[in-house]
Amino acid sequence: MRLIIAEKPSLARAIADALPGAAQKHDGYLSVGDTEVTWCLGHLLEQAPPDAYDPALKPWRRDHLPIVPSQWKLVPRPKARGQLAVIRARIKRASQLVHAGDPDREGQLLVQEVIEHLGWKGDVARLLINDLNRPAVVRALSRIGDNRHYHALYRAAQTRARADWLYGINLTRAWTLIGRQAGHDGVLSVGRVQTPVLGLVVRRDEEIRQFVPYPFHVLWAEVRVAAGTFKAWWVPSEQHRLDERGRLLDEAPAQALAARLPGSQGVVTKVESRHRRQPPPLPYSLSALQVDAARRHGLSAKAVLDICQRLYERHQLITYPRSDCRYLPREHLKSLPGQLASACRDDATLGRWLANADMQLRSRAFDDSKVGAHHALAPTGKPFSAERLSAQEADVYRLIARNVLAQFYPALETQEIKAECQLLDERFAASGQTLLVPGWKPLFTTRDEAPPLPALHQGETCQAINAEVEQRETRAPEPFTDASLIKAMMNIARYVEDAEVKRTLRDTDGLGTEATRAGIIETLIERGYLVRKAKTLRATRLGVGLIHSLPDAVSRPERTALWEQRLEDIAEARAEPDPFVSQLVVDLTALVASADSQRLQSALRSAQGEVAAATPAKRAGTRRRRSQPRAKKGTSARDASSTTSDGGANRKSSSGRGRRSPRKGNT
Question: Is the sign of the CA dihedral 67, 68, 71, 76 positive or negative?
Answer without folding.
Answer: positive
